[in-house]
Amino acid sequence: MLSRKGLIPEDYLLTRLAEDVLQPKFKTKQRKARFVAKSGTCNVAHTNIREQGRFLQDVFTTLVDLKWLHTLLIFTMSFLCSWLLFGMIWWLIAFAHGDLDAKGDDFVPCVTDIHSFSSAFLFSIEVQVTIGFGGRVITEECVSAIVILILQNIVGLVINAIMLGCIFMKTAQANRRAETLIFSKHAVITVRNNKLCFIFRLGDLRKSMIISATVHVQVVRKTVTKEGEIVPLDQIDIQMDNPVGTNSIFLVSPLIISHVIDKNSPLYDLSAADLQHEDIEVIVVLEGVVETTGITTQARTSYLSEEILWGQRFVPTVSEEDGMYAVDYSKFGNTVKVATPGCSARALDEAGGMESFRLKESSGASVRRRIRHQNTKEL
């Protein structure tokens, strides 16, 4: 992969190359299957679909969703089958009119120079792809031949239109643009503006911007309702603080997106110790319009509980050099440890907030210094 060749730093991941993430060397606990992979693909298998005919009702979308090999195979078979079908029809017209038998100079055939099925097949190809070598020409002798000529031209145009449309849509698919939308390898939980926050970083490697980009975040966990109903994939929306203060973000440089863990957050009762045992998954969805094509694109990733670092902060990546702002992507995923309470946001609020935590920390530090000082004197 590109990261192994030194072309892409290991500290961040392209959304489609995230399967190369090195797993932790320590043994992790057994957990449920991941809902969304780091690359953004959904780990969902649709089984026991009885009404398969629904896919044929939207043939164009089905063709676009197919793999390139399958799409090209279908188009190749479509052309071959149409050429063979109309070649057979041209051969039958010539056989019914008697064009295959040797006639005098006064005999006018429906199509000139058709003597066998091979020549009829070649004429079918010439008609549908408008090659026109000039050796075989339709005449005014047979009305049925004129009707078949019009019908084959229409069928050929329809096949060409579908083929060109599918190829254009497959080459201009929005997920290709998502290859250069990147997310930090880890998310962090740290203190920001005296509040515990869930934070991750995202960026765009291209200079062409994503217009009206928005970020949606959900927590996926297994929950049990008050009635005892088990919801294996309960998707809970969490509110993100937009760094630019509007509904959409201005993704011209890497941005740090944060979520304040307040009483309305599903992470409100989560502490640093609980994070190691909690079976949660945070899904991040970045959506916007590609500036060059006008197509809506979407990039996704997710963070498991072991991929959320407690008590760390992202280092800055933007600096001013020679009158311009430079982004150092080698620091995209780098974090540093900072003083952060290990308790949950609920416990922190009940204890009086960050001010009380800092006072306790300072008093505890002074007590520890006095103890060390006394021990030094005794020695």
TrEMBL record:
UniProt subcellular location: Membrane
Ranges for domain Inward rectifier potassium channel C-terminal: 181-350
Membrane topology: Multi-pass membrane protein
A single cellular component GO annotation: monoatomic ion channel complex
InterPro entries: Ig_E-set (IPR014756), IRK_C (IPR041647), K_chnl_inward-rec_Kir (IPR016449), K_chnl_inward-rec_Kir6.2 (IPR003279), K_chnl_inward-rec_Kir_cyto (IPR013518), Kir_TM (IPR040445)
Keyword Hydrolase included in the entry's annotation: no
Positions of the Potassium channel inwardly rectifying transmembrane domain: 36-173
Keywords: ATP-binding, Disulfide bond, Ion channel, Ion transport, Membrane, Metal-binding, Nucleotide-binding, Phosphoprotein, Potassium, Potassium transport, Transmembrane, Transmembrane helix, Transport, Voltage-gated channel
GO molecular function: ATP binding; ATP-activated inward rectifier potassium channel activity; metal ion binding
Site (Role in the control of polyamine-mediated channel gating and in the blocking by intracellular magnesium): 160
Signal peptide range: none
Record's catalysed reaction(s): K(+)(in) = K(+)(out)
Gene Ontology BP terms: nervous system development; potassium ion import across plasma membrane; regulation of monoatomic ion transmembrane transport
Membrane-spanning ranges: 72-93, 143-168
Family, as annotated: Belongs to the inward rectifier-type potassium channel (TC 1.A.2.1) family. KCNJ11 subfamily.
Functional description taken from the UniProt entry: Inward rectifier potassium channel that forms the pore of ATP-sensitive potassium channels (KATP), regulating potassium permeability as a function of cytoplasmic ATP and ADP concentrations in many different cells. Inward rectifier potassium channels are characterized by a greater tendency to allow potassium to flow into the cell rather than out of it. Their voltage dependence is regulated by the concentration of extracellular potassium; as external potassium is raised, the voltage range of the channel opening shifts to more positive voltages.
Subunit structure: Homotetramer; the homotetramer binds four ATP molecules (one ATP per subunit). Forms an heterooctamer with ABCC8/SUR1; one KCNJ11 homotetramer interacts with four ABCC8/SUR1 molecules. Interacts with ABCC9/SUR2.
Protein name: ATP-sensitive inward rectifier potassium channel 11
Source species of the chain: Sinocyclocheilus grahami
Gene this chain is encoded by: LOC107549287
